[in-house]
């Protein structure tokens, strides 16, 4: 039994169980450092060659397909698709229009609530991917673009905007999102590539080659989060893989299940897209072990923005919160209502990052990083502001 002073920390994203409830599981595995618990579901939407929408549910623990449903035709010729949530899919047409597809149910039958054109022309992307955290990505002519999606059911330009060019040279065979501002892609020569995106930085993106070859056989790549990857072959086979740490920039810990595919054939959809952030893993952290808490904080900072993943930014953040709270989750300012590792004033502000803000250092760190980003732009800017004030605060 875990001590009461131990809490779970998010490693690959917030714990999310699909609202539809298919394929839910809890599986615990041991590691040299901490236990890891994974939970969630895998929901995959697709479009057949005749324009019919499909829905498939997969058990994330063993790769078994639970069901596939075929719905009505969309009524236009699709070019790319991205699943926003369990009942909303964005699809572009070959004429450059953007449609929102609303799903009414996918329990026993796949029925639609409507297909709405929300944008007239201009969408030339050949691939789309949504990270589940408000960012829609697409590639057009080798250029990677990012959009901000501000509504669960966007109605047009008012809800999809802030178009940003991330970079050129993104001539990719497949593309999917694996987490917040995190993309996974394959190239025609078989490389598996991880991209960390930060549109506010000078470089805007960083890449890691997870595998140098062996992935050229896939023409569709999808991920529900949590380090689960699915690849569809030209023969219609669906194969699944588990990355123990999808944020480490290494593919050495990817487990292959090629001898036990989801299906050896039968996946004939022209397009496929998984619901993002429907599966995640957490590990156990001793919240009273400052060394452990700081290690988690540094990893979270590195993952929050690629431009922050430097020794100097970490030094600023570590020193700032050393002074503010000593990195103690229960630091309570006796002269104010400031609380927690980032000394949120009042502490209840951190509820926006999670209901467990009072006791969970990960929730507190997540809130603190977002606060620093919005108010100061970087940990070093926040530390500089703290030093310039008397009494000190940021």
Tell me what you see in this structure.
The chain has 394 residues and is mainly beta. It has two domains: 275 residues, Tachylectin 2 (Tachylectin-2, Chain A, 5 Propeller); 102 residues. 14% of the residues lie in helices and 39% in strands. The chain has four helices and 24 strands. The strands form six sheets. Strands 1-24-3-2 form a four-stranded antiparallel sheet. It has a four-stranded antiparallel sheet with strand order 6-5-4-23, with no helix packed on it. A four-stranded antiparallel sheet has the order 7-8-9-10, with no helix packed on it. α1 crosses α3 and α2 crosses α4. The longest helix has 15 residues. It is globular and about 65 Å long.
Quickly describe the structure.
This protein has about 400 residues and is mainly beta. The N terminus is likely disordered.
Name a few traits of the molecule:
24 strands, mainly beta, globular, 4-stranded antiparallel sheet, 394 residues, 4 helices, disordered N terminus, Tachylectin-2, Chain A, Tachylectin2_sf, signal
Largest beta-sheet details: 4 strands, antiparallel
Q: What structural category characterises the helix and strand content?
A: mainly beta
Mean pLDDT: 89
First and last CA, distance: 39 Å
Tally of helical segments = 4
What is the CATH fold-level name of the largest domain? Tachylectin-2, Chain A
**Low-pLDDT residue intervals, each spanning 5 or more residues:** 1-34
Strand content: 35-45%
Give the name of the CATH superfamily of the largest domain: Tachylectin 2
The total domain count is: 2
Identify the CATH class of the largest domain: Mainly Beta
Strand order of the largest sheet: 1-24-3-2
Helicity level: 10-25%
* Helix-strand pattern: EEEEEEEEEEEEEEEEEEEEEEEEHHHH
CATH architecture of the largest domain: 5 Propeller
In angstroms, what is the radius of gyration? Answer: 22 Å
The shape is: globular
The count of DSSP E runs of length 2 or more, i.e. the number of strands, is 24
Organism: Actinacidiphila cocklensis
Protein name: Peptidase S1 and S6
Signal peptide: 1-34
Keywords: Signal
């Amino acid at each position: 039994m875990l001590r009461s002073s131990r809490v779970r920390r998010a490693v690959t994203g917030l714990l999310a169980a699909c609202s539809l409830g298919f394929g839910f599981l809890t599986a615990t595995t041991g590691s040299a450092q901490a236990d890891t618990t994974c939970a969630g579901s895998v929901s995959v939407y697709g479009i057949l060659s005749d324009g019919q929408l499909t829905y498939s549910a997969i058990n994330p623990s063993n790769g078994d397909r639970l069901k596939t449903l075929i719905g009505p035709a969309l009524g236009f010729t699709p070019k790319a698709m991205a699943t926003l949530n369990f009942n909303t899919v964005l699809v572009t047409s070959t004429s450059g229009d953007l449609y929102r597809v609303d799903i009414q149910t996918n329990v026993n039958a796949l029925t639609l609530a409507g297909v709405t054109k929300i944008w007239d022309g201009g969408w030339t992307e050949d691939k789309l991917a949504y990270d589940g955290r408000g960012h829609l990505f697409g590639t057009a002519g080798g250029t990677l673009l990012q959009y901000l999606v501000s509504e669960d059911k966007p109605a047009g330009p008012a809800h999809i905007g802030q178009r940003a060019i991330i970079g050129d040279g993104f001539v990719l065979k497949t593309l999917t999102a694996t987490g917040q501002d995190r993309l996974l892609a394959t190239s025609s020569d078989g490389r598996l590539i991880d991209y960390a995106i930060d549109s506010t930085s000078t470089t805007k993106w960083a890449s890691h080659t997870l595998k140098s070859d062996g992935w050229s056989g896939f023409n569709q790549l999808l991920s529900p989060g949590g380090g689960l990857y699915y690849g569809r072959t030209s023969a219609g086979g669906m194969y699944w893989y588990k990355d123990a740490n999808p944020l480490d920039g290494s593919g050495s810990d990817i487990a292959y299940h090629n001898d036990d595919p989801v299906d050896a054939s039968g996946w004939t959809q022209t397009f496929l897209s998984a619901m993002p952030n429907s599966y995640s893993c957490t590990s156990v952290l001793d919240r009273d072990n400052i060394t452990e808490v700081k290690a988690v904080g540094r990893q979270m900072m590195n993952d929050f923005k690629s431009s922050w993943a430097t020794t100097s930014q970490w030094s600023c953040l570590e020193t700032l919160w050393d002074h503010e709270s000593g990195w103690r989750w229960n630091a309570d300012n006796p002269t104010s209502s400031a609380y927690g590792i980032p000394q949120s004033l009042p502490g209840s502000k951190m509820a926006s990052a999670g209901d467990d803000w009072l006791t969970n250092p990960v929730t507190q760190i997540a809130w603190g990083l977002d606060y620093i980003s919005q108010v100061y732009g970087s940990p070093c800017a926040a530390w500089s502001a703290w030093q310039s004030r008397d009494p000190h605060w940021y």
